[in-house]
From TrEMBL:
<dbReference type="Pfam" id="PF00185">
    <property type="entry name" value="OTCace"/>
</dbReference>
<feature type="domain" description="Aspartate/ornithine carbamoyltransferase Asp/Orn-binding">
    <location>
        <begin position="6"/>
        <end position="65"/>
    </location>
</feature>
<protein>
    <submittedName>
        <fullName>Aspartate carbamoyltransferase catalytic subunit</fullName>
    </submittedName>
</protein>
<dbReference type="InterPro" id="IPR006131">
    <property type="entry name" value="Asp_carbamoyltransf_Asp/Orn-bd"/>
</dbReference>
<dbReference type="InterPro" id="IPR036901">
    <property type="entry name" value="Asp/Orn_carbamoylTrfase_sf"/>
</dbReference>
<dbReference type="GO" id="GO:0016597">
    <property type="term" value="F:amino acid binding"/>
</dbReference>
<keyword id="KW-0808">Transferase</keyword>
<dbReference type="GO" id="GO:0016743">
    <property type="term" value="F:carboxyl- or carbamoyltransferase activity"/>
</dbReference>
<dbReference type="GO" id="GO:0006520">
    <property type="term" value="P:amino acid metabolic process"/>
</dbReference>
Length: 70
């Protein structure tokens, strides 16, 4: 697959995001491939929850691990 062609067809860009409701937020489970799935400017943009997802991931995994150990 040609990455540029894939991004042109399926990637989320600022222009495409403009057509979404203003309350729409961007989430991504990671790892992110900038320029393949999301435009780089969207990753840290005001509508992105990706950093929050990363911050929440460690305590969530710790809680699940602790629950499984008990």
């Amino acid at each position: 697959i040609d990455p540029a062609r894939y991004f042109a067809t399926y990637g989320l860009t600022s222009e495409r995001l403009k057509s979404c409701h203003p309350d729409v937020r961007i989430m991504h489970p990671g790892p992110i491939h900038p320029g393949m799935e999301l435009a780089s400017d969207l990753i840290n943009g005001p509508r992105s929850l990706i950093r929050q997802q990363v911050r929440n991931g460690v305590p969530i995994r710790m809680a699940v691990y602790e629950e499984l150990r008990s």
